[in-house]
Write the structure tokens for this entry.
Amino acid sequence: MKIKYLGTAAAEGVPAIFCDCETCRYVRKHGGRDVRGRSQAIVDNKILIDFPADTYRNTLKYNIDLSKIRHLLITHNHEDHIYPTEFKMIIDGFTNLPKGYPPFNVYCADDVASLISEYEEKSPENLKINIIEPFKPFEVLGYRITALKAIHGTPEMKPYIYLIEKDDSALLYATDTDIFPEETWEYLEKAKPQITMVSFDCTNGTDEEMPYIGHMCFGKNRICRDRLLKLGLINKKTKIYVNHFSHNWPILHKDLVKKGRKEGFKPSYDGLEVSF
Ligand SMILES: [Zn+2]
Ligand SMILES: [Zn+2]
Ligand SMILES: [Zn+2]
């Protein structure tokens, strides 16, 4: 399997859209891998993960034709992971597709579905929303996909992380979560996937600790990694990347590389492709 990161920042982007902090000033001046759009990735150029406001520009930047991509997983209802207004552009007239063309399938929890259901009602032949439950694997194009519960956002929300398996590869895509909830650990322990790549939330960068619940930093990534190792779900060959960075924390690419080396963590950046 192969993942391509299209956007690797938290909600406000790096540099943050309206910000003039030291990090944002540095990034505007130096550019390069520190410039990060909102969170999005694509697996094997077939399955898209998340749909931020930057999606349209990403399709141009990375030469992705969304009329050919028919499957999208959404992690949760925050605006940097789903930009509902854009779905208006899928209704007939804004989108012209031949009769019988496969619809654009969105897989998500019901709280996400409610944000875009009006567009499915208007053009059901173009958009199909598939409401998914945690811990119930489903198949898409020969990939076995399982939504796992995350810890993130408000108690009413239903945030997911995803386990995507095919042949001998398995990706654990864990963005916008704290250290996983016990239910998720229990599922993983029973299911025993042999994970070949992990992508961890690292909103708070190289910090050891963080002051609030719902995201991770190097310290929390290490706790998750050690538990995955102990459960035998990853091994020394498993690739571990960190992702979803916020300008409010120590997240410059050079520092992530330097401090990550010791841990075996590599930083994602926009446009990075990893095979695993
Ligand atoms: Zn986010
Ligand atoms: Zn800033
Ligand atoms: Zn979020």
